[in-house]
Amino acid sequence: MIALLMRDLRLATRAGGGFGLGLSFFLIVCTLVPFGVGPQGDTLARIAPGILWVGALLACLLSLDRIFALDWEDGSLDLLATAPLPMEGAVAVKAAAHWITTGLPLVLAAPVFGVLLHLPAAAQPWLVGSLLLGTPALSMLGAFGAALTVGLRRGGLLMSLLVLPLYIPTLIFGAEAVRRGAAGLDGTTPMVLMAGITLAVLAAMPFAAAAALRVNLR
Amino acid sequence: MALISVRGLAVSRGGRRAVEGVDFDLAAGEALILRGPNGIGKTTLLRTVAGLQPATEGSIQADPDAIAYAAHADGLKGALSVAENLRFWREVFGGPAIDRAVAAMNLSDLVSRPAAMLSAGQKRRLGLARLLVTGRPVWVLDEPTVSLDAGSVALFADAVRAHLAQGGAALMATHIELGLPEARVLDLGPFCADARRPAARAPASFDEAFG
């Protein structure tokens, strides 16, 4: 399992691996919004929690189809399916690799982007905390969507349609936690609910994704 | 004792039956070559034996953890070097060290080269070297010699022979002569599902159709 994780991380950081793509996309979204809505600080501060969360979500979506599509194309997925590693484990490892290369950089860079959008300082810990708890669910749900559409030509678009609705609960609670933080309130309740969603997703989705992969490999 | 035992096997591809009623046993030290025209279902049969898809009918007795499968695609990552590719599969399957596989497939000069820079034949040799690092006794190979030159085919035949001598077994689909006279050949032609059903058979002549 460690071998698979190391391979995926190595592939992501090599040429053409797409490392940093999501982060750059997130940066561009956060820079475009002030151009679109105008530079008034109070307007930006009000919409910042939502923009930051939607931006993180879209940045995450950008690289999802790579989770399985590349391995399917070059035959690695067939070989992994016949390997001693259980399919559920392979799915979980690949989702983890996706999170480390996409979700984790977003979490670490989010405070800087928060400043770009005039997010109040009081909300910064809530932003980092909610992204840290929420992005693993985004990667795992994305792995499920990628497993459903692996092998389809132009499957990336279909995958977005399947995955984005599943992201809604995480988005609602994540943005709510940041909004409460920005208003000087306690955001623990939405945070706890989001953590619950993340745990449920991490527990159930490897099995769902592995089942989808097995069907698609037939 | 047979490593693979297949009884009355029928496989389907896209909901259509390809071959049916296939029986064979594969014991340690044996090689079995599947032959038959394109599209008869050799790949489907091999994928079924490898456990990648369910059998439509019949039974396959084999330990799925004994089978190393190799298809048309080699499962290589272009961004990784030859050694990194092999080491990855070795770690996943927990097989022997990669040195012997590298030497057996004559890849010693290429170990540090990215797999994307290899020619088609070299990639194929790397894909076959992967079989050696899985350490699994039963090789299930789908057209293993595609894009290999004559020298490499001989190299591959030697690797198969060494594998059989160590108590391994090999089930292969191939169209060319491998230089493995000891291998048994199973022609899938008679097992073709369409040919076995009289209604589905195309009339041989005009008279038969309309006479």
Automatic annotation (TrEMBL), chain A:
Offer one Pfam family short name for this entry.
CcmB
- The answer to whether UniProt assigns keyword Transport to this entry is yes
Q: Name one GO molecular function term.
A: heme transmembrane transporter activity
Q: Where in the cell is it found?
A: Cell inner membrane
GO cellular component annotations of the record: plasma membrane
Coarsely, its chief localization is membrane
What keywords sit in the KW lines? Cell inner membrane, Cell membrane, Cytochrome c-type biogenesis, Membrane, Transmembrane, Transmembrane helix, Transport
From the record, give the transmembrane residue ranges: 12-37, 43-64, 96-120, 126-150, 157-178, 190-213
Q: Which InterPro entries does the annotation name?
A: Cyt_c_biogenesis_CcmB, Cyt_c_CcmB_bac
Signal sequence residues = none
* BP term (GO), one: cytochrome complex assembly
The way it spans or sits in the membrane comes to: Multi-pass membrane protein
Biological role: Required for the export of heme to the periplasm for the biogenesis of c-type cytochromes.
Family, per entry: Belongs to the CcmB/CycW/HelB family.
Q: What is this protein called?
A: Heme exporter protein B
Where is the organism placed in the taxonomic lineage, from the top? Answer: Bacteria, Pseudomonadati, Pseudomonadota, Alphaproteobacteria, Rhodobacterales
Automatic annotation (TrEMBL), chain B:
Keyword Membrane annotated: yes
Q: Which domain of life is it from?
A: Bacteria
Coiled coil spans? none
Domain ABC transporter positions: 4-207
Q: Which UniProt keywords apply?
A: ATP-binding, Cytochrome c-type biogenesis, Membrane, Nucleotide-binding, Translocase, Transport
A single GO BP: cytochrome complex assembly
What is the recorded name of this protein? Cytochrome C biogenesis protein CcmA
